[in-house]
Amino acid sequence: MKFFVDTAEVAEIKDLAASGLLDGVTTNPSLILKSGRPMLEVIKEICAIVPGPVSAETVATNHAKMLEEGRKLAKLAKNIAVKVPLTPDGLKTCKVLSSEGTMVNVTLCFSAAQALLAAKAGATFISPFVGRLDDIGQDGMHLIDEIMAIYRQYPHFKTEVLVASVRHTQHVVQAAKMGAHVATVPPNVLRQCFKHVLTDNGLKAFLDDWAKTGQSIL
Ligand code: E4P
Description:
- There is one protein chain.
- By secondary structure, the protein is an alpha/beta fold.
- Helix content is about 50%, strand content about 15%.
- It has helices at about 10-15, 30-35, 40-50, 65-75, 90-100, 110-120, 130-135, 140-155, 170-175, 185-195, 195-215; strands spanning about 1-5, 25, 55, 80-85, 105-110, 125-130, 160-165, 180-185.
- The chain has an 8-stranded parallel barrel, surrounded by 7 helices.
- Helix 9 links the parallel strand 7 (about 160-165) and strand 8.
């Protein structure tokens, strides 16, 4: 499974990319606002740090304008994935951009029917928002299960399931168990994936004992 980080904070991205475990980045208008930086500038910087797909979201709601925005974003770097919303105009734009060889991430997916349409429109990624479904009392991960089951029936679909709106490490684990292709994870959740109290305690005990031996490896 690929790990993307869900942030527009360049310092966080640099830090996590240094782990060698980062496969891509997703941003959205809210994350750009949070960064406090001009979108085009920040996206270009991110693309230079992470060689994998970097999602940059369009904000127009009509097809013509969205296509113009998408083409402009796609020119920023080779690894841009243009994000379009799961609307009729968004899917129309997805189809055109995909046919031009641009990666497209269809965002704001909340149903299996929507995911089916995105695959038919040639999306590179479909982004079902699991956390936001959980937030309204629905089961976000059930949606991932449904989409994976549908996509498996049609091997010619090339769309990758990008689990978005991840809130905790269990979302990541469940996504992996279901065979989702990608999880886009906020930096704090990605860091939590490394952690276990027994790892910390065990390491401390080994290092304490090693110090008592008086030896050195180097
Ligand atoms: C990523 O592509 C999505 O925009 C993001 O995961 C949404 O997450 P949120 O529900 O925490 O805002």
